[in-house]
Amino acid sequence: MLDIKFIRENLEKVKTAAKNKNREVDFEKLLDLDEKHRSLTQEVEKVRAERNVISQQRTVNSKQLTDNSEQRTKGRELKEQLKRLEEGQKKITEELNLLLLTVPNVPHESVPVGKDASGNKEVAKWGNLPKFDFPPKDHITLAKDLDLVDFDRGVKVGGFRQYFLKNEGALLEMAVLTHAYRKIAKKGYIPLVAPSIVKEFTLLGNGQFPWGREEVYHLEKDNMYLAGTAEVPVTAYFSGEVLDERILPKKFVAFSSCFRREAGSYGKDTKGLYRLHQFNKVEQVIVTNNEEKQSLEFLEELRKNSEEILQDLELPYRVLLMCTGDMGEPQVKKYDIETWMPSRNAYGETMSDSFMGDFQARRLNIRYRTGKNVLQFCHTLNNTAIASPRILIAIFENCQREDGSITVPKVLQDFVGTDVITKR
RNA sequence: GGAGGGUUCGCCUAAUGGUAUGGCACUAGUCUUGAAAACUAGCGGGAGAAAUCCCUUACAGGUUCGAGUCCUGUACCCUCCGCCA
Fold first, then answer.
1. Does at least one atom of strand B sit less than 7 Å from the CB of A372?
2. Out of A314, A349, A369, A401, which one is annotated catalytic?
3. Confidence band (pLDDT; 50, 70, 90) for A98?
């Protein structure tokens, strides 16, 4: 949510931002409500002031316990008047807040303006695409041939889009997660294992709600939710707290199991390991002060960390700077990192690197006290370190050999216990 | 599942239904060669050019001229018991 004051003072900027993000916002109504809200507030405050004067007069006389009926009558009248005014004010406030929720965050000036994914800008590319002098298999065939994933029994036990990772497939997942986790932790990020079951406020605070309710599993009996990413619990880690600026930035690397309903994507990627209801992810999260220049540097740092992990795995990838039309409401700037997936004959999204400004911190009420003893909202950022099994698609397919075996990336060989996965 | 206790500023803490205390921490200033100490002021949010005013005791209602305080409901935290592992 943006500050209404900021909107008022930067109207053109905010209007343009909404337009560029393809969001419809009724700014005329918003400003009208804002003005009504402020004038009503002034009226309410005036009546309250009168009321306060009366009860204070009484306070002075309280020892005498004289019953001044004139004051009481006046007080009752004011109470009635106040009640009416407050009802109107409450209604306006609610309308205003609802409308405020629809105002997206303002993208950074370095973000290209564009309608949709076609407006995204490729800013980096790494690695050579594999050239096969044999017909390459897709990851599903490879996984079945080598008994690395049991899709059928996964569905039998867990339903649509479920799976068992098996043998080296299972080891590979643990290996790739461990590699990323240890690597980022070595850079000084605080390792966390985060809860997947979370309260509603964490989702509202992160900006997943109210928009993405359909996407999130709800445990109705307990009124809890299953988080689709560790961003949710970890960004909410400091919610409601006031931090000392000297402890910032706080950098975290968090493991969690992630759950997504994938509602509305029934037709998409129904086969294989691309789109799943449950997966595991190592996520990087940074909570820092509100110096935008530094925050943007952190966005680059997070991007570099993830790129390094793909380079360790020797997987070809590219980095896209998302255009205004293809980024979410909360983001100020966002990169997607896509890894080459031969069966798709395309790059597929494997990581998402976002800077939110103070959008999330406002909603989660995460503040810090500056050296000047002033309270400010924090900035938040996050980026995927590694998400599996999706990354296994790239590993299986890029590292396959003519005989149907798969070479294990060097950095994972120790953990997996072999340098090549062959048919047993 | 049952019983009880709790939630006031970053932390601690006070308030017979009558102006939300006080301390610590923090910030600025005075003093000092510098620092510490001491002293002074500030230290939740909003409106306003300002004076000033309003709101703020977990949240939402109610009673009252007036609610941190009384009543109702909700959320969250803690303790004990039971059940399960």
1. yes
2. A349
3. confident
Q: How far is the CA of A365 from the C1' of B46 (A)?
A: 17
pLDDT at residue A424 above 90?
A: no
Q: Would you say the C-beta of A38 is within 7 Å of strand B?
A: yes
Q: What architecture is the A4-100 domain classified under in CATH?
A: Orthogonal Bundle (1.10)
CATH architecture for segment(s) A117-421: 2-Layer Sandwich (3.30)
Helix (H, G, I), strand (E, B) or coil at A6: helix
Cα(A420)–Cα(A416) distance, integer angstroms:
9
CA–CA separation, A19 and A21 (whole Å):
5
The model scores a pTM over 0.80: yes
What residue ranges do the domains of chain A occupy? 4-100, 117-421
Known active-site residue A275: yes
Q: Is the CB of A375 under 7 A from strand B?
A: yes
CA–C1' A371–B36 (A): 21
The token duo for A16 is 């343009």
pLDDT over threshold 90, residue A230: yes
> What phi, psi does A34 have (nearest 5°)?
-60, -45
